[in-house]
Each structure stands twice: as structure tokens, then as C-alpha cells.
Amino acid sequence: MNPIPQIASISELQNDHLAIFNRLTVGPVILANRSEPQAVVVSVEEWDELAAKMRTMEQRIVRLETYVESKRIAAKMRSDPESITSLMELCQRYNVVEKPEII
């Protein structure tokens, strides 16, 4: 279960920013202007962790997209032998700089 978000007003941030920074040990703080959320403040450690997770997810998405595309190309080659393309041609078509290892 997600904890109840911490909310602070912009005036709280202006008047006592250190108190807001201290609250970051518990989790992110949502900054509100006239009760409307405007920004989220997170600690550097949490930001680094989130950024690393995003990079990992982006890499996984690219690998998954590549896998799906390779399956599509393989199916096309099986159904239409005239469409068979060499690995080097595929690498050039998809801007692959290094020739991938074949398993």
C-alpha cells in the first residue's frame, strides 16, 4: 500500500525549506500552490534510484521491441523465402553498428 503523500505549500518551502528537505527522508513531498499540486521534490538518492530503474526499463523495452521485430522478420522469411535478408543487410537497415553475436 502506498503511503499518504506528503504535501507542502509553496509558502512553506519559502519560509522553511530545511523542514521540507528533512521530510524527504520519509519520501517525496508534493508542492502545492493554492492547494493545486505543482511539483514533486525527491531526495537525490531517490532520484538516482528512479533514474536507474527508468534506464533499466528503457533497455528492456528496446530489447523486447527488437525481439518482436526479429520474430516478425523471421515469420515473413518463412512465409516468403524470396524476402530472406542477410544479417549484414538487417544490421545496415536498423543502424546496428556492431554485428550481433548469433546464439
Name some characteristics of this structure:
103 residues, alpha+beta, YefM-like fold, 2 domains, three-stranded mixed beta sheet, 4 helices, rod-shaped
Hey, roughly how much beta strand do the residues contain? 5-15%
The H-and-E topology, N to C, reads as EHHEEHH
Rounded to the nearest angstrom, the radius of gyration is 24 Å
Low-pLDDT stretches are none
How many domains would you count in the coordinates? 2
Average pLDDT taken over every residue: 87
Strand elements, count: 3
**Helix-and-strand structural type:** alpha+beta
Q: Give the spatial strand order of the biggest sheet.
A: 1-2-3
Could you explain the architecture of this structure?
- The chain has 103 residues and is an alpha+beta fold.
- It has two domains: 6-42, YefM-like fold (3-Layer(aba) Sandwich); 50-93.
- The protein contains four helices and three strands.
- It has helices spanning 10-15, 17-23, 44-79, 87-93, and strands at residues 6-9, 29-33, 36-41.
- The model has no long low-confidence stretch (mean pLDDT 87).
